[in-house]
Amino acid sequence: MDKDTKTMIVSQVIAIVIGLAVTILVAIWFGVSIYSDLPFGYLFLFAACMVAVMLHILVHEMGHVIFGKLSGYKFMAIIVLGMCLVKDNGKIRRTHLPLMGAAGGTLILPEGGFKEDTPYRMMLLGGAFMNILLAAVCGIVFIMDIHPLLNVFMWGGMIIGIFVAIPNLIPFSFGFMVNDAMMIRLFKKDEASKHCVHYGQMRMYAILLGTDRTAIPVPEHLPHDNRLGDSIRFAIAEDELNFKRFGPALERFKELLGNFEENSFAYKLVDLHILLIHELNGADREVIDEIYKGKMRKFVDAQGKAIPMALLFRVSYEKRFGTGSVNVDRLVKMFNKLTRKVGSAADFEREIMASLLAGGMRPADDNGAEEDIG
Question: Dihedral through CA 193, CA 253, CA 80, CA 63, nearest 10?
Answer without folding.
Answer: -10
